[in-house]
Structures are given as structure tokens and as C-alpha cells.
Amino acid sequence: MPHHSNVLSVIKLKCPKCHEGDLFINKNTYKYKGFFDMPENCTKCNQDFQIETGFYLGAMYSSYAITIIINVTVFLILSLFLEYNIGLFLTIDLFILLLTMPYVFKISRAIWLAIMIQYDPKAVAKHEQKA
Question: Is 5 left (phi over 0), alpha (psi -120 to 50) or beta?
């Protein structure tokens, strides 16, 4: 597979080390059965996804940043195209946040992993060689 950017692997919820394996068992973001389930290791390069207890608490920082970006975007759109109304803003913002929450959860974990794990273009080949 040709190399692509870390940003693309995060958006596609792929392993940050090889950019090929899936980060989540349930690929459908809006199917709630098994929503939080991640494999123990990457199926392509064997990268450990259960790094240490509490590792994913750091994903809250990226989740917070994404939520702020969503809030500011909703605010700007309402301010620029409609007369600003706090009730309308809160209603639309709540709806959009609830709608995007599952994806924000998953992408926050992907961002946190991508920050902590370096891309290795030979990761899959190294794993296959060991097996």
C-alpha cells in the first residue's frame, strides 16, 4: 500500500504505525453494539493498542479541541448567516454535538495514538517476517 499522511490514517481510523489495520472492531460509527471495542493489537503490524492502563485518557484533550472547533463553527455560521439567538445556538449546537459525538470519540483516540506512535513504512513487512 502506498504511504499516505498521518492525517488521512486518523480520519480513516487506521493504525498509526502501518496505516493499514483498523483501530476499531466495529467500523460503523453509528452502530452502538461494540462501539468502544478495539482489537488488542493491529491485525496488520501487531502494534499494541492496549499500551497501558489509562492511556486513552489523553484522548480527552483532542476530543475537547474538536468539540471547541465544532462549537465555534456553529457559532460563526449562526452569527454570519442568521440573527444570533442563544436559544437557537444551544439547540443546534446540542444537536450537532450529539450527532458527531460517536465519531469525535473514535477520532480522538486515533489522534492520540498518532501523536504517540510513529509511522513505520516497513511495519507490516517486519511483522510478516516474524510470523
Answer: beta
Q: Nearest to residue 103, comparing CAs of 78, 70, 54?
A: 70
Query: Across the chain, what does the average pLDDT equal?
Result: 88
Report how many domains make up the chain.
1
- For 56-108, the pLDDT digits (tens) are 998 999 999 999 999 999 999 998 988 778 999 999 999 999 999 999 999 99
Is 1 contained in some domain? no
Question: What's the domain range around 34?
Answer: 6-130
DSSP-assigned beta bridge partners for residue 48? 41
Residue 31 near residue 44, CB atoms below 8 Å: no
DSSP result, 11-51: HTTB-TTTS-SBS-S---TT--TTTT---SB-TTT--BS--
pTM over 0.90: no
- Within 8 A by CB and 6+ apart from 27, the residues are 13
Burial (0-12, 13-18, 19+ Cβ within 10 Å), 15: buried
